[in-house]
Amino acid sequence: MLNAAQYEAIQYLALPGHGDLTQEQIAEKVGVTRKTLYQWRQSIEFQDELKREISRNTAEKMGDVVNAMYKQAIDGNAAAAKLLFQSTGMLTDRLEVEDRTKQSDRSANTVEDMKAEIARLRGKKNA
């Protein structure tokens, strides 16, 4: 379990640009050495909590991000428009393929056609 100083360090580290603080300044603010802060950052538990805090911070700003993408898209930025459409689910990387075979080319159009095809295949199997 993380201690209070570690959670405080995570608050600074999760800020964009670490809140304009160096690693040494963050360590000083939470009352540890830079080496201790470095050791904390190597811990999986610390890293996981840092990622969660960054994710929470990002979620809080998502509306601002979408608005910025919208403004860029309106100004003609194709990359921003694509990202905006992807983030709203209106554009995916999924490739859809259309079946262009003619109805007459399909071997099983009706239930009767399917039954006839099954009977034909069974006849080949028994022959």
Topology as a string of helices (H) and strands (E):
HHHHHH
Shape: elongated
Strand content: under 5%
Unreliable residue runs:
none
Q: Would you write up a description of this structure?
A:
Residues 21-40 form the HTH cro/C1-type domain. Pfam families: HTH_Tnp_1_2. This is Helix-turn-helix domain-containing protein. InterPro entries: Cro/C1-type_HTH, Homeodomain-like_sf, Homeodomain_phBC6A51-type. With 127 residues, the protein is mostly helical. Helix content is 66%, strand content 0%. The chain has helices at residues 4-13, 23-30, 34-42, 44-74, 78-87, 111-126.
Condensed summary:
By secondary structure, the protein is an all-alpha fold.
List keywords for this structure.
127 residues; elongated; Arc Repressor Mutant, subunit A; mainly alpha
Write the layout of secondary structure elements.
Layout: H1 4-13, H2 23-30, H3 34-42, H4 44-74, H5 78-87, H6 111-126
Protein name: Helix-turn-helix domain-containing protein
InterPro entries: Cro/C1-type_HTH, Homeodomain-like_sf, Homeodomain_phBC6A51-type
Domain HTH cro/C1-type: 21-40
